[in-house]
Design goal:
By secondary structure, this protein is of the alpha+beta class. It contains five helices and ten strands; from the N terminus they run αββαβββββαβββαα. A hairpin with a 6-residue loop joins strand 9 and strand 10.
C-alpha cells in the first residue's frame, strides 16, 4: 500500500517544486489572484526593496499604498497605484468600527493608531500616499505624516535633559520648586 502511494506523492512534490522553480506564486490581493502584469509590478517592487512577500492573502489600498494580511490590520505600505488584485472590499480587514478609509472599514487597532494623531469619529474618510487625510468627498483636513512628526517632536521635548539654570524662567514666573 505504501509503495503505491509514493508515486502520487512524488508527482505532487515534483509539480510543486517545478512551480516554485518558475516563480509561480499563490498570492492574492483584495480576494483576487494577481494577473501576470500585476505579478510583474509586485516583483519589481520586491526586487527594488530586496524582499519577497510570502505567498498569502493580502488586502491592498491602491490610493494610499496601505496593506495587510486579509482580515487583519495595516502592517505596512507598498507604493500606491500598483493596482494589485481587484477593488478593495470594505470588509477586507475587519468590521465593527464604523470608520471607513478609502472604502475599507478599519479594524480597532487601525482606529486606535489614527486616534493617536487626530480626533476620529465613525464616518467615511480618505487618505493618499502623501498622508493627506480628510472626509470622503471633501478637501484635505490634515496631513497624518506631519501630525506624526509633530507628535514625535513633542515626545522628544518632554524627555529632554535641561541645562543648569534653564528652570530660572519658571522660578521667576511664580513656580517655585520646594
Amino acid at each position: 500500500m505504501l509503495a503505491g502511494m509514493q508515486k502520487p506523492l512524488i508527482l505532487v512534490l515534483t509539480v510543486m517544486a517545478s512551480s516554485l522553480a518558475y516563480g509561480q506564486r499563490h498570492i492574492t490581493f483584495n480576494g483576487k489572484p494577481l494577473t501576470a502584469e500585476q505579478e510583474k509590478r509586485l516583483e519589481a517592487v520586491e526586487r527594488e526593496h530586496g524582499v519577497r512577500l510570502p505567498d498569502r492573502d493580502y488586502w491592498y489600498d491602491n490610493r494610499s499604498g496601505a496593506a495587510g494580511l486579509w482580515q487583519g490590520p495595516t502592517l505596512g505600505a507598498l507604493p500606491a497605484g500598483l493596482e494589485l488584485g481587484g477593488p478593495m472590499p470594505a470588509n477586507c480587514s475587519g468590521r465593527g468600527t464604523g470608520v471607513f478609509v478609502n472604502g475599507r472599514e478599519l479594524p480597532p487597532t487601525d482606529v486606535l493608531t489614527l486616534t493617536q494623531l487626530t480626533l476620529l469619529a465613525p464616518g467615511r474618510y480618505w487618505v493618499d500616499a502623501a498622508g493627506n487625510f480628510g472626509f470622503e468627498g471633501r478637501p484635505v483636513l490634515v496631513n497624518l505624516m506631519d501630525l506624526a512628526r509633530a507628535s514625535q517632536e513633542q515626545v522628544i521635548d518632554r524627555h529632554r535633559v535641561f541645562a543648569p539654570g534653564e528652570f530660572s524662567g519658571l522660578v521667576q514666573s511664580g513656580y517655585r520648586m520646594r
